[in-house]
Structure formats: structure tokens, C-alpha cells
């Protein structure tokens, strides 16, 4: 009995040692705070673990030179808050208008300290549940058939405290520096520790390893005080304005390109860093050589006994010795804390710095483990903005909606409209939606058609990579076909070697809309929801499978797709062709004539005129329609001088009097009266 009681007490103690939450979020950076906000608004049980004493600890150190490259456009000429988010790359999504980043900085490229302040306020003002000074050092699984996903996630912090949760959201970002090991790499200084005081580099010759924004940021800081700067990397420089990828080199940091191309001593080189070697001479100078020169040699024997490339090729590019070599190779995801049972595997090729995840941001190895923020960028790497705040604030919201449906039976938010509002709904979204605009080719609006195309259901910003799973992921049904509204660049417009400033680069005619180069809306029509197989076999670089019909809205210099002839009319005709219906709006008089001349009324007349809905006519409105050519010019034979012609009562009486109506065929009247 004593042994049984002792064993029971151990089980109770073991159970009590785990602090349980439905949702655990690792990391209180921007994506962790964004996820916490949505969970809190939904009333869910969650906790955020942050290893530092404050949120956004990454921005307390990086970028080292404190200038963010995310734009803070405070003025757009518009008051629409959703539209303005298209040009606000720093704000997180919330209901609190105080938490817009433009209130924290007036700079177009803000200081990183403003971001730290912003994230602190976001966490405190919204009262997010964050446990600071808690570093999660190990994550493993506990199998349990009663758990949401068939297992629980067990977390251990630096103090050996245990936590248990049903769903794990990883928002740690990529913070482990990329390091390349080669002979002499011990002489290399890291971006994370190198001095940011330009005077420390005065009169020195510097070699920078890397060619991303951190490398050019470092070069920009010391450009005016060094003898010269060389930059070497495996790949050629990629300019963001050519690739349309915000993670490539931004103009704010590219001063070195000027000094290189204008022959002011600085230069760029291409080469595999793993093939390099660094030799330090007696004066402390660093010489660049190639690894194969050091094979079977003792590097400690001295530089005089080692063959250098310039000994064989006297104009070798890096023959001049350097005072300093700086590593600026970016960061990668920290896989070290995850037990093998979670099967958190790195991606392949240029995505190896990210964990492998599905298009719905769930780990490929473990159900219920979602990766958010910068670490989830493998889904749209080098394509869209998913690795940056102005992109992952929307993908984080999408993940939250998927979780709400999976675990709590809350379907994806949607709105049902009559079919007559289809054109207007699409035009409204493509002109103001920020999620579609920033996460182009990744997030899309889904329009689910009701039976007989009398109405439609509108879902916003759904991940197109899991379109085949839409019914399961959203709790919405799609038995009658669907439209997918997405934003795209031209197929052959973006690329490191592309000239994006060539003459006639823009398309202005609606009939050539499919050749649009700049970001523009594209509408795909499917009679049936695409299958998993169709998604796998879609054409290369297509975000979606081949549709039954597709329509490009021609690109617009002002990104304002409201031109009646260039934008709206072609879209409406495309929708009408897909649905075999008439989506025009009509005056009541036209609907009245249709009831006598057609077997089937247009939807606008069915849902408006027949149900006694619509605008009340007046003489002023009638005259305006006549002048616009939308109505026949009826000649009124009698007006009471005591009553103004545009009064409602007068116009009603006058329409009932005998008018001098020109005798014309009814069909001609019908054709003349559609709006």
C-alpha cells in the first residue's frame, strides 16, 4: 500500500510539474506578438515565451547600423486605413489605431530603436500574455490519442521548468549567424560583433564576405573612410527593383555599386567562399588565397613558404592584403532545440536556412506545429514578402483562421452577397486590400458561387498553396465553382538580369492586359475546386493550376483599377461570360420593359426592381440620365408652374400624364437603357 501511494504521489507531482496551455508561442518578436493578438481576441488559452526581458529583442541589436529598410510612408493622399497599410511596412494588425507605426517615427526608413519601442507598446497596450526571461531549450512530443493532434508538445526552459501545449507556434525567426568554415576563418569578424564606428576603419582596406543588405549596410557605413572595400560572394548582386523582391539589395544601401562602376577603387567579386583561405602575415595583414594551395601544407609555417595565387597570376584580383575581413552572410533558423521526434528538417538548396513547412505554414514532420514570421519564408522565398512584417502579419492571420476552424469549429470569415455585387466586390478589394497587395501570388481572395449563380460567398486572403484543401481548411463548401482573385507581376519581368526600365515596359490597353508587367490583379475561374494532383502538376511559376478561364486587369500607373472602360467593363464581361448571365445595373424603366420582352430578367432586375428595391426616380435624376445617354429623351408636355420639375411628387404625376413619346421599337429602348 505504501508503494502504491508513493507511486501515485509521483504521478501527481509529475503531472503538476507541467504548466499547460492550449497554444504555446516561442518568441515575442513581431510574428509572435501578432499571433498572440489574434489568439487573445478570440479568447483562446495561450502563452508566449520570450528569452529576453522585452519583446523584439532582435531589433535591439539588428540591424547593427540601426537603419531599417522597411518603408514608413506616412502620407498616401487617402484616408482608407486598409489601403494605407499597403505602404506601411512596419505596423502589426490590430484594432487599436494608436498602434500604427507612423505614430512612432517620421522617417521614411525608420531607426530600429523606434521598432523596439513600438513592439513594447504593442505588447503592453494590448496586455498580451508574455512570459519574459524564458528561453525554451528543448522541445519534444508526448503521444496521446486524446490530444488535438494525437500528441502534446513538451517544452523545457533554461530553469528546467516544464510546459505542455496542444499546438505549438514557432516565431523565433532566423537569428543564428551563417558561418562558412575555411582555412583562416578564425581571422574573420562577424557582422554581429564588428565595430559600427567608422573611425575604427579609417585608412584600412576591408574585405566583406556576403552580398545581402547586411553586407552593403556595413559597406555603406565605412565607405567614406576606408582605402577601398572589396566584396565577395557566391552569387551576383540582385537589385530589389529588378527582382521585385524586398529582401534583395535596396537602394538605400547600394552606394558601393556607384564607387565600383565609377572606378573609385571599391569592387565586387564572385566566388565560392568555401574555396577561399586566409593567411595572416607578420604585420597582421590578411592575404586571400585558395584552399587548394594549402593542401598538405602547414599554415603555421609562415606565409613565405605558401604559394599565393599572385605568384602564378600576377594580376590576381585580391592580391592586395587586407586589414580586416568581415562576415555578413545573414542568419538561419535554430534547429538545435527540437527533439528528433518532431522531425524539424531544414529545407533544400537556398531554402536550407528555413525549416520545411507546408503551404499552410504547418511543419511537414509534425501536425500541430506551425512556423510563423521570418522562419516561414520558405513558402514564398525570393517571391513575395512573407519573410517581412508587411507580409507575415497577413500569413499569421491566415494561420490563426486555419486553427480556429480546425480546433474550435469557427469557419473562415466570409460575407455573402447577391451576384449583382460581384464586380463591385472584386474592384473594391483589388483597389484597397493590403494582404493581396503585399503577399502577391501567395494569398488570394476566394469567391464561392452559390447554386445557379444567384449569390456568392467572399473569403479574404486565403493561402493559394492549399486551395485543393479549401473545404477542409475553411469549413466552407465550393460545389458550384469559384473565382480566385490574386495579384501578380508579369511572368518574364522580374529577375536579377532583367532590364526593368526598358522603353515601353508598361501596358496601357485593356486588350493587352495579359502582357502586363507590373503588379496587377488576375482573376482565375474554376468550374470545380482544383484537386491535389492539379496543384502538383500546375505549370512552372504559376501560383495556381490552369483554370477554365483567366482574366488580367491591365496594370495601372497609379495602382487605381477603377477606370470604367479600361478596368471595370472588361472585368464585368469576363464574369458574365463565365456565369452566362448579365451583371449590368439597370434603371427601373429598363427592368419594366424587360418583363415584357424577355423570358428571364437580369439578376439586377430580379433582385432589385421585382422586389420593389432601388433608387426613387426624380426629374433631376432623369435629366442626368438623358444627358448621359442612358435614357430616352421623353418630351414632357405639361409642367405645373407651381411645382419644381425635380420634385418627387411632380415627377411621379408627370410620368402618369400623356407624354409625347417617340414611336420606336421596344427592343431599341431596351438596348439604349442599360447602365
From TrEMBL:
Quaternary structure annotation from Swiss-Prot or TrEMBL: Interacts with SEL1L. May interact with OS9 and DNAJC10. Interacts with TXNDC16.
Molecular function per GO: flavin adenine dinucleotide binding; monooxygenase activity
UniProt function note: Probable flavoprotein which may function in endoplasmic reticulum associated degradation (ERAD). May bind non-native proteins in the endoplasmic reticulum and target them to the ubiquitination machinery for subsequent degradation.
Top-level taxonomic group: Eukaryota
Database matches in InterPro entries: Auxin_biosynth/cation_transpt, FAD/NAD-bd_sf
GO BP terms in the entry: ERAD pathway
Pfam family, one: Pyr_redox_3
Keywords: Endoplasmic reticulum, FAD, Flavoprotein, Glycoprotein, Oxidoreductase, Signal
Organism of this sequence: Fregetta grallaria (White-bellied storm-petrel)
GO (cellular component) term, any one: endoplasmic reticulum lumen
Annotated SUPFAM superfamilies: FAD/NAD(P)-binding domain
Signal peptide: none
Cofactor dependence: FAD
Protein family according to the UniProt entry: Belongs to the FOXRED2 family.
Protein name per the record: FAD-dependent oxidoreductase domain-containing protein 2
